Amino acid sequence: MRVGFGYDSHRLVTGRKLILGGVEIPFMKGLQGHSDADVLVHAICDALLGAAGSGDIGRHFPDSDPAFKGVSSLTLLKQSNHIIVKKGLRINNIDATVVLEQPKLQPYRETMEMTIAATLDIERDMINIKATTNEGMGFTGRGEGIAAFAVVSLTEAEGMRDR
Question: Would you give per-residue pLDDT tens digits along the chain (163 residues)?
C-alpha cells in the first residue's frame, strides 16, 4: 500500500466560474489560476502523484505551459490517473476536505464524487469529500480563497508492476 497527501489553494476573484470537484457551482466569484483552478481536483492529483512517487501537479502540468491554460482540471486528473496506472498502481480510496466559508458544498457533494469517480473509472464509494469552514480565520475564513486537502491510498494492481 502507498499513501499520498495533496494540498492546494487559490484566490477567489470576480469574473471566473467556481469549479470544485469538476462541478460548476453558482457563486459570485471563482478561483484564479492557469487552469480552471479546481483546488479539490488539484489536491487529489497531487495526492495521487505523491503516492506513486511521481512528483507533483506542477511538474507534470506546469502553469508556464500554454497547453494547460484554461484546461479542465478533470483532464489533469485523468492524466494523473494514467501515470499511476502505468506504474502498476490502483486507487483504493480518496478522502478530501475543502476549506471555505461560502458557498455551502453539501448540495454538490454527491455530484462531485460521481464526477471524480467517473473520471478515474472507480466506484463512487471509494471517494469521500467533506467541507469545513475556518471559523472566520485566515484567508479562507475571510473569504479570500479556498483550500483543499486530499489523502489517497494506492495498491499494486495484480500482475501490473513494471519495475
Answer: 999 999 999 999 999 999 999 999 999 999 999 899 999 999 999 999 999 999 998 898 878 877 778 789 999 999 999 999 999 999 999 999 999 999 999 999 999 999 999 999 999 999 999 999 999 999 999 999 999 999 999 999 875 544 4
State the cell numbers at 125.
464509494
Q: CA-to-CA distance for 90 and 135, rounded, in angstroms? A: 36
Q: What is the DSSP letter of 100?
A: -
- Grid-cell match 499520498, residue found: 4
Domains of the chain: 2-156 (3.30.1330.50)
The separation between CA 133 and the C-alpha centre of its own chain, rounded to angstroms, equals 18
In terms of Cα–Cα distance, which of 104, 98, 103, 102 is closest to 147? 98
pTM of the model: 0.93
